[in-house]
Write a structure and sequence with these properties.
Length: about 140
């Protein structure tokens, strides 16, 4: 299924991104920046909602906040990786948690300090889709 929007030539699709962030202002700031950069973006505020979206659409990248289900983070991320191994994963972690979160996620995930400029997240998404999906735009 191609996710084509205005200004995107036929046959080329925009990267499909899911943002999982419990904070409404943080979630919508990320969505706004990503949409402005040409990504097709969906948002979830809970792990249940996140997993539901992942079952319904072929996401290229999932941006996950480490604050979702903090006490079960390792289990939830392991489940996400098991059920959707091809999806690029970017984890937003508090500065103090970056090292431990990287151990949980594995080497193939990108971990970014949560309170950095959303443009860093956009750069990470571009890097993932360029590596995995060279034909995508944005």
């Amino acid at each position: 299924m191609d996710h084509v929007g205005p200004g995107v030539p036929m046959g080329i699709r925009k990267p499909l991104v899911l943002v999982a962030e419990e904070s409404k202002p943080g979630r919508w700031a990320l969505v706004h920046v990503m949409q402005a950069q040409g990504f097709e973006v969906y948002a979830a505020s809970t792990w249940i909602e996140t997993m539901g979206w992942l079952e319904r659409a072929p996401f290229d990248v999932t941006v996950v906040s480490s604050s979702l289900e903090r006490d079960r983070l390792a289990d939830v991320l392991a489940s996400l990786r098991r059920r959707h191994p091809a999806i690029g994963l970017i984890l937003l972690a508090d500065q103090d948690d970056v090292r431990s979160v990287r151990q949980i996620c594995g080497a193939d995930a990108i971990v970014i300090a949560k309170h950095l400029d959303p443009e860093r997240v956009v750069e990470a998404i571009r890097a993932l889709v360029a590596t995995e999906f060279g034909q995508l735009t944005a």
